[in-house]
Write a structure and sequence with these properties.
Layout (H helix, E strand, L loop, with lengths): L11 H18 L14 H16 L18 H11 L10 H14 L2 H13 L4 E4 L15 E5 L2 E8 L10 E7 L10 E7 L5 E5 L10 E11 L3 E2 L5 H18 L8 H12 L6 H29 L8 H23 L12 H9 L10 H12 L25
Parallel strand pairs: 1-4
Antiparallel strand pairs: 2-3, 3-7, 4-5, 5-8, 6-7
Length: 412
């Protein structure tokens, strides 16, 4: 993807001027997301706050920095992107709820979409005016996504989609979703999948909330009953969906493992150190050791994320190394839960002040870290196979046509 300026053309003075411009914007707009005491089980308040910030970013010419102007981006350089991330890392993250839309769907449409699709969708995605979701997992196809049963059948100038997706984050608030569906059951399961863009308000799309253990309902089931979409909504090539799904999963793991900011970030340990001091337990040597370990893990994750982002800036789709960052986030989430509950003490289990309820909610929510974006076991397999070159697991269905498999609810 070409930008309008070359990196070499950006002098030190121009870099400092752009950094100052970023600081001035962030001083005004990156003030943290406060719900004012309101509960937000469906994530709507947080998402609207993120959209407001993203729209202000677009109005200031700071959104989609490296995307071409014709598609709604700023047309700037990778150096501008680095400066923005480095600066943003020192402020509260305002756009976490846009992680899937901006970190996964946006780069997929930008990389694989047609010129017409880019003109139609990218500007709205970049500004946050339209939020997108990802629809891969199914009740019978979680870690084995290629076993999906949702099907898309061609009917003239349309595709008809039938099936079910699950664990779709913020589907109830999204304008569009990227879905993978089976388009050819006569070939092995990885070979007969295609990727589509689906309007979430299309006739036949039904979104149902999933009630989670932490009290929130931002995950959803999505049902498709004879949903008709235009043939032009095919993203990429027909039956090339598995390669694209793999690319999107790599973007997902990078997004989860590197977040939306840049530089060295130690947000979790910073907050816990402050809380430990406030509660008078910061002198505990065992607690101090765990806090230091958490801070070290966050620093290492930041370095891995910086390396991964450098690969993306070089024009390469994220590779299997993104699984390293994803795996690290699980270790951080587990340790953060252990340390935070140790600091909170009894108030992490039973509380009088509603503010203390956050400790239990965070602990319960952390259980999803080892599942979202691919389970910990899957990440280790990917690292072993594609990064370290270790022998692959045995695949008993290799080369077998999908229609001949006893998979999910399918029967011969």
């Amino acid at each position: 993807m070409k930008t309008q300026k070359s990196v070499a053309a950006l002098s030190q003075a121009q870099q400092e001027a752009f950094r100052q411009r970023c600081c001035e914007f962030l001083d005004e707009h990156a003030t943290g997301i406060s719900l004012g005491g309101e509960t937000d089980p469906r994530g709507e308040l947080r998402l609207r706050a993120a959209q407001k910030f993203q729209q202000a970013l677009a109005d200031a010419g700071l959104a989609g920095l490296t995307y071409p102007v014709e598609y709604g981006g700023a047309g700037l350089t990778k150096t501008h992107e680095r400066i923005w991330r480095d600066t943003y890392s020192k402020y509260p993250d305002m756009t976490f709820e846009l992680l899937i839309s901006q970190g996964m769907c946006l780069p997929m449409v930008a990389e694989y979409g047609s010129h017409e699709q880019k003109l139609k969708y990218l500007a709205w995605m970049i500004s946050g005016s339209e939020v997108w979701c990802q629809m891969f997992s199914e009740p019978g196809a979680g870690s084995d996504v290629a076993g999906l049963q949702t099907r898309a059948e061609r009917d003239g100038d349309e595709w008809i989609i039938n099936g079910q997706k699950v664990w779709t984050t913020l589907a109830h608030l999204c304008a569009y979703g990227i879905i993978i569906a089976r388009t050819d059951p006569t070939v092995p399961k990885h070979a007969g999948i295609s990727m589509f863009i689906v309007p979430m308000d299309a006739s036949g799309v039904e979104v149902r909330p999933i009630h989670q253990i932490d009290g929130s309902t931002h995950f959803n089931e999505v049902f498709f009953s004879d949903v008709r979409i235009a043939a032009a909504n095919l993203l990429g090539d027909l039956n090339d969906g598995w390669r694209m799904a793999t690319a999107m999963l790599m973007y997902e793991r990078v997004a989860i493992g590197s977040g939306t900011t840049g530089g060295i970030t130690t947000d979790r340990s910073d907050r816990l150190i402050e809380e430990a001091r406030k509660r008078g337990v910061s002198g505990d040597p065992n607690l101090r050791q765990k806090l230091m370990r958490l801070r070290t893990l966050e620093t290492c994750l930041s370095l891995v994320a910086m390396r991964t982002r450098a690969e993306i800036k070089a024009g390469r789709t994220p590779g299997p190394g993104g699984s390293v960052g994803k795996l690290a986030t699980v270790a951080i989430a587990d340790l953060h839960t252990e340390v935070s509950l140790a600091i909170a003490g009894a108030s992490g289990v039973a509380w009088e002040d509603e503010a203390d309820a956050c400790w239990q909610r965070q602990a319960l929510a952390s259980l999803s870290a080892g599942i979202a974006g691919g389970t910990t076991e899957i990440q280790r397999n990917i690292i072993g196979d594609r990064v370290l070159g270790l022998p692959r697991d045995v695949s008993v269905d290799k080369g077998v046509p999908y229609q001949d498999l006893k998979i999910g609810t399918q029967r011969n």
